[in-house]
Amino acid sequence: MMKSQVHVMDVVERMSSGLLLPFIRIQTTMLKAIHDFMTSRGFLQLMPVITSKFTDPLAPDPGSGVIAVPRIKYYDQELVLTQSMLLHKQLALLTGADKIYIMSPNVRLERKERFSTGKHLFEFTQMDFEVAYGTMEQIMSLVEDLVIETIKTVKTDRKEELELFERDLRVPKKPFKVYTTHEIRERYGDDWELPASREHKEPFWVIDHDREFYDREDPERPGHFRNYDLIYPEGFGEGLSGGEREWEYERILRRIKGDGLSPDSYKDFLEIAKRGLLKPSAGAGLGVERFLRFLVGAKHIKDVQVFPRVPGVEVLI
Known about the structure:
Blueprint: H1 8-16, H2 21-40, E1 44-46, E2 51-52, E3 71-74, E4 77-81, H3 86-92, E5 99-107, E6 123-132, H4 136-157, H5 159-164, E7 177-180, H6 181-188, H7 193-199, E8 204-207, E9 227-232, E10 237-244, H8 249-258, H9 267-274, E11 281-287, H10 288-296
Parallel strand pairs: 1-5, 7-8
Antiparallel strand pairs: 2-4, 3-4, 5-6, 6-11, 8-9, 9-10, 10-11
Helix pairs in contact: 2-4, 2-10, 8-9
């Protein structure tokens, strides 16, 4: 862990300076806009899961920089802290709710070098959502509407704060541009995210990522995947990740083994899948702090957190 050059009283001075208040005001407007949008589209809100017997492995995604899964001992049980509620979202659809969303705290112990990206935190919140029988196209359209409506609301209700940040937000047009991973790599190289983001003026999609076992492989095109990332323009990078889900036991088990993961770590989830209880679904996770950073145009994501939790920086409060 890098030692911070900032004293705890410097943090307190930052908090009491009034500089954070405009961020908080815009964040409040943003969150209300998100809640209003989701409920208007028929979503029901769940409370988050913080501890569990299993969590999203975030592997073998090459974009993941997590160095360890956080674990705690509670009496005779070893529990993990939530890295993402993805698997729990699938299970929550067993309640009969067809559309659910959660403001979900996530802990991802990122390697310290991630500080330099300006977008990584090791403790953050996702607006996580899932739709029973949803498709990739439906979710992408929904997210586009969410982003457009939230930007419109922030521009209208927080004009003074945006002027303070000299932030001229533009409302993107629907549909957003779509690239496959093959197309984006061919154009920008393997490390495509930042240069592609910088070159664009509006958000865009990158689809077909070869990553975790739960993202559905296209049954008509083996080796291709029904998933998607939303990339903000102007160098702000990825803001949302999602996909259609695998729900059939044999496919999930094959994918887990193919990723080199232990089926024992997911035995309860696999047992539910084996009984045929999982539903086809699709969803995504929207990074709340990343969205706020984009809206205000902050250089680093630590600037929009009252209590920053940044890889490589000592926690002072």
